[in-house]
């Protein structure tokens, strides 16, 4: 899990090790064109960019506009990187055979039509291209309460939008004396 401290992101050492292992799977060649689906605030694409030459092009795509804004703030000064706000679950707005690598970390499970996404990935991937989809998650959600409709709404929102939105929503509700039990189980 990552936490923000003084504007910097601090990651659990296990998280960093797992990410570094995933990056080690990338076949590195000159002038690669890379797409990160679900790039969030751009950390993975930034780390991948450090492995690439100056002629590589890196694209990050995310459905969350705030994440794209933050990615541009964090890493937009690198002219090799371009961050795009787009719902890639619908389509990937690039031509066929555009990418040497399509990368995605902790996202595929959030896509409703996985078959469609995989067809799109295949379409934009160059012949002999590489796909790395990874998932690791050391925390889980545990939500309980008497209001089952509210629990369903929270669970659906968590799955659709991510834990940050739920945490923000929950803490605003808890300050308003909402009655709900919400907890994370870290490292279970």
Quick take:
With 188 residues, the protein is an alpha/beta fold. The chain is built from 6 helices and 9 strands.
Q: Unreliable runs, pLDDT <50, ≥5 residues?
A: 162-188
Query: How big a fraction of the residues is strand?
Result: 25-35%
Structural class: alpha/beta
E-strand count: 9
Series of H and E elements: EEHEHEHEEHEEHHE
Question: Helical residue percent?
Answer: 25-40%
Main sheet makeup: 5 strands, parallel
Count of helical stretches: 6
Supply the number of structural domains: 2
Annotated CATH topology of the largest domain? Rossmann fold
CATH superfamily of the largest domain: Vaccinia Virus protein VP39
Average pLDDT confidence is 80
Q: Whole-number radius of gyration?
A: 18 Å
Strand order of the largest sheet: 5-4-3-6-7
Distance between the termini: 13 Å
Shape estimate = globular
Please name the CATH architecture of the largest domain: 3-Layer(aba) Sandwich
Protein name: Methyltransferase domain-containing protein
InterPro entries: Erg6_SMT_methyltransf, Methyltranfer_dom, SAM-dependent_MTases_sf
GO biological process, one term: methylation
Keywords: Methyltransferase, Transferase
């Amino acid at each position: 899990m990552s936490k923000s401290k003084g504007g910097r992101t601090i990651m659990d050492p296990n998280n960093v090790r797992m990410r570094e292992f995933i990056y080690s799977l990338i076949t590195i060649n000159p002038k690669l064109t890379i797409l990160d689906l679900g790039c969030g605030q751009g950390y993975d694409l930034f780390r991948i960019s450090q492995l690439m030459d100056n002629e590589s092009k890196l694209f990050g795509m995310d459905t969350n506009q705030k994440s794209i804004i933050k990615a541009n703030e964090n890493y937009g000064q690198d002219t090799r990187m371009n961050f795009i706000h787009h719902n890639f679950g619908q389509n990937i707005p690039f031509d066929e055979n555009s990418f040497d690598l399509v990368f995605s970390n902790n996202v595929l499970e959030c896509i409703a039509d996985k078959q469609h996404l995989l067809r799109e990935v295949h379409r934009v991937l160059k012949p002999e291209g590489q796909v790395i989809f990874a998932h690791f998650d050391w925390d889980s959600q545990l939500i309980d309460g008497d209001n089952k409709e509210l629990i369903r709404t929270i669970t659906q929102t968590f799955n659709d939008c991510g834990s940050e939105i739920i945490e923000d929503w929950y803490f605003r509700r808890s300050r308003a004396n909402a009655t709900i039990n919400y907890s994370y189980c870290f490292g279970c």
